[in-house]
Every structure is written in C-alpha cells, then in structure tokens.
C-alpha cells in the first residue's frame, strides 16, 4: 500500500544492519482510568490527544537471532511514558540491553510505524529506488537496509509495503541478547494516554404523582491514542489516583461510534485498593478516533425527588457579627429545578442526562449535570435548569440593632409567583449569616429545615397565582465578641 510523500535521490552507505520486527497482537489487556478531559470526548479538533491514562499488557510473538541484535515493536500509541515501558521474555530466551522509543508524531508519523518492516521506495515516475528493511524515517530522509548495504533516500514519492495492515502510532526499538534463534513469546507492558473513560447516565422521568425514573448506566470509552485496539480485555477503574508527573499521560462524536453492548452480561465489579474496578465480560474493539459505550449496570427504576429551589445568600460565616445594614441584601429572581436520588450501587463520576415525555409521549431533554463519585446509599443531587413559570422576589422588611443588649433583628418577605397551569411547591432556602448564633422569631410558614447556616421553607404556590412568606430572625452574641459595624 503506497504512501505519497516527496521526490527522490538515493545515496548508498556501506553498512549492513538487520532488524527484526514484531507486529502488535490482538487481545491486549488494558486497565483504563477515568478521565474528564473535554478533548477526549470532543466531536471536533485534533484526533491526537495527550490526555487520559491506561496501562496496557500485550503479548508479542518475535523472531529472535542468536546473540545481540535489534528488535522493533510497532503499532504503539502516540503518547507513552518511556520510563515505564517494559518487555519481558517469560521463557528466558532473551534479555533487553537497551531500548529507544520512536514517536509516531510529526510529518514522518506514518513512516515511523513501518520501522523494521520490508518496504519498497518509489520515485515520482514510479521507478524503484530501494527495497529492504526500513531502519529510520526522519527529516533527513529514509534509511533502508538492502541486500547491497544501507541506503539513505532523501527524496522520494511513495513508499509501499506488503500485506493489508499498515502499522500506526509509535515504535519501540530494542537491543536484545538472545540465547537462540527462532520464535519467542514476549510480554510488553506500558502506560499510555489518548484514551480514557467516564460514566454516562440517562434518566427518563416516569409519569405519575411521585418522582421515579428509568435509570441507565453506561461507560463511555474515548480512544484518540493514534492506534486501533482489537479484542481488548478491559478493566475500568473508578476513583482518582495521584499522578506525580505534570507531563505525559494524564487522566483527564468521533468519526466512529460503537453500538451499545447488550444489557447482559454486565461488568464484574470489585474493590481495588481505595478504588472501584469494572471488568468487562467480553473483549471489545476500540477504533482510533471513536467513543464506544458499554453498560455498567442493568437499567432499573429509581425513586427520586424533584425540587423547585429559590435560594438567597451562601454558607459563608463572618468572624464577627455583621451590623452593616446593607449586608446580604441581594435578591435572586430565578427558581432552580433540581433532582435528587439515592445511589442504588457505587456510581462512578460522570454526566447524567434527564429526559421527560412531552404531551405526545416523546422523550425530551430537560437538563444535564455532573455526578461525582457516589458510594452506594449516598445521595446525588443535580441542577436541571431554571423553571420557566416560577419566579421569586426577596425584600427586607425590618432591621434593628441593639448594641447594648447585644441583639440584632432582621426580617424578610419572599414573594413567589407561578404562571403555570398547576400548583407548585417551592423550597425557599435562606442563609442567616450575619452571625453564627440566631433563632427564628416569626414565620408565616413553619420551617421545614433548620441548621447552623441554613433555613428552609416549603411554600405552596397556586396555579396562575402567588404566595408570600414573611419571616424574621434574631442574632445574639456575648460580651467578649466584638461586632463589626
């Protein structure tokens, strides 16, 4: 298969050098770590991405020559941690003396993958310039070992190689010392980037007066490593291991989208140190430049809670009582729709898309949010968006400071409006944070929740109407506390 490149001039060099080549074998074993890198999952941009993290273990069948000689392993990803690469011979047929990583990047990326292969170099008129083993492809040309010596070709038009497979990615050149000639099995392990995974969840809200949803859990696996992976045995790791290096592989729609696997069988889940692992039940193909999806858990119905939230203020607490009258007078108008549910099992971090049926029964998108790593039995909460028909307004109706008595009184009025055709319940969340010691002195609606920094009310708002909440709080402090004016 030819590669068009440039025009030709051949120069002979009087050295003979033999190189053995071992092609990548299918059936690699890969441990893949979670990555949230937007570049990995982007539907546009460069296909070569140096984000994500995976540890690969694969078997190579190599042809050895007795004694010291060079061996090239091709079809490696574009971004590798050269310091962590290791080749071993389980049968003890050879040992590695030294190794050099040939990066499959830049203008010679495609030819780098052919290092150690038999090639034919052609001129611009189709004439044969050289045939032999490619030793190196660089800016200064091609170095080819032929029957007559070693040839440096600085200008050429095309390169062809036999067979239907064209190696891609980087190559590893090793100098080995073999005890015998012949075939041998070798085990190659290395970390790489350009590949990662994250969880992808879809929740479809079910009709009815109670909140429930059909919940689907999948793993999205992005491959932009510069190499195809075939029949790969895959284990997914959920959690956040520490990576000491600031460069190189890091855990952070393509042209091919793999179809979702059948609902059964599902990955085998287990603990791995402080992390969670998911071992896929069958090998998968991961083409370069693709996002593949596999199920994590079987689809199920999950109970949930939807909240219309009107919130003002925050959890910040001052070091001294805040007596300034203009403190914390901001008024928000938006009512936020949220969704909360309890994790039925350990849920890895990812994104949850929420759908609901319209009047014709067609599922429609109503919001998306991120779920952090959530242990089984813990709550996950996400924001769906801003409610269209609901609005809120907050105004302060009273403020008085008694410095001698070391008290401060403050009152607010919350007005909620509903332009929709059905009554709604709005959760009003306030944060009395002028000082850490406070009590509710009055309220037209009984508080539904009260903590050291939060005050909540459930307010029923009629259809095409409004509701008003009035409440007051009193702050107190001791003589040893210095108020801030």
UniProtKB/TrEMBL annotation:
Signal peptide extent: 1-24
Keyword Signal attributed: yes
Domain called DUF4139: residue spans: 187-477
Pfam families per record: DUF4139
Entry keywords, A to Z: Signal
Highest taxon, organism lineage: Bacteria
Record protein name field: DUF4139 domain-containing protein
Organism: Dyella nitratireducens
């Amino acid at each position: 298969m030819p590669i068009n490149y440039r025009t030709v001039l051949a120069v002979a060099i009087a050295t003979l050098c033999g190189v053995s080549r071992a092609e990548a074998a299918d059936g690699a074993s890969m441990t893949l770590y979670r990555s949230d890198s937007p570049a990995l999952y982007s539907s546009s941009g460069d296909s070569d991405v140096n984000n994500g993290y995976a540890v690969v273990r694969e078997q190579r069948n190599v042809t050895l020559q007795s004694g010291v000689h060079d061996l090239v392993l091709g079809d490696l990803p574009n971004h590798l941690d050269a310091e962590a690469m290791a080749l071993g011979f389980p049968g003890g047929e050879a040992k590695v003396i030294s190794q050099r990583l040939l990066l499959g990047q830049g203008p010679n990326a495609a030819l780098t993958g052919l290092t150690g292969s038999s090639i034919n170099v052609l001129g611009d008129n189709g004439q044969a310039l050289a045939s032999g083993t490619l030793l190196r492809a660089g800016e200064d040309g091609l170095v080819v070992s032929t029957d007559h010596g070693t040839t440096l070709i600085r200008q050429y038009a095309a390169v062809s190689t036999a067979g239907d497979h064209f190696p891609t990615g980087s190559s590893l050149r090793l100098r080995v010392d073999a005890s015998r000639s012949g075939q041998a099995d070798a085990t190659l392990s290395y970390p790489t980037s350009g590949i990662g995974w994250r969880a992808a969840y879809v929740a479809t809200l079910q009709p009815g007066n109670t909140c429930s949803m059909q919940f689907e859990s999948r793993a999205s696996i992005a491959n932009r490593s510069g190499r195809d992976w075939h029949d790969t045995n895959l284990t997914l790791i959920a959690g956040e291991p520490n990576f000491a290096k600031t460069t190189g592989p890091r855990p952070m729609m393509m042209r091919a989208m793999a179809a979702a696997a059948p609902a059964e069988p599902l990955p085998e889940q287990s603990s791995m140190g402080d992390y969670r692992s998911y071992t896929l039940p069958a090998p998968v193909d991961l083409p370069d430049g693709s996002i593949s999806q596999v199920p994590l858990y079987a689809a199920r119905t999950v109970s949930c809670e939807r909240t219309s939230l009107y919130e003002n203020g925050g959890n910040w607490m001052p070091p001294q009582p805040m007596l300034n009258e203009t403190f914390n007078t901001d008024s928000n108008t938006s009512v936020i729709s949220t969704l909360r549910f309890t994790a039925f099992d350990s849920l890895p971090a990812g994104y949850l898309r929420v759908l609901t049926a319209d009047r014709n029964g067609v599922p429609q998108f109503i919001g998306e949010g991120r779920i952090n790593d959530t242990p089984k039995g813990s709550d996950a909460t996400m924001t769906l968006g801003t409610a269209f028909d609901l609005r809120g307004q907050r105004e302060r109706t009273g403020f008085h400071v008694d410095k001698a008595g070391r008290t401060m009184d403050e009152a607010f009025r919350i007005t909620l409006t509903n332009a929709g055709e059905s009554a709604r319940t709005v959760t009003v969340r306030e944060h009395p944070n002028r000082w850490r010691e406070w009590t509710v002195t009055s309220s037209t609606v009984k508080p539904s929740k009260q903590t050291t920094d939060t005050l909540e009310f459930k307010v029923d708002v009629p259809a095409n109407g409004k509701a008003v909440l009035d409440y007051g709080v009193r702050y107190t402090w001791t003589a040893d506390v210095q108020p801030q004016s």
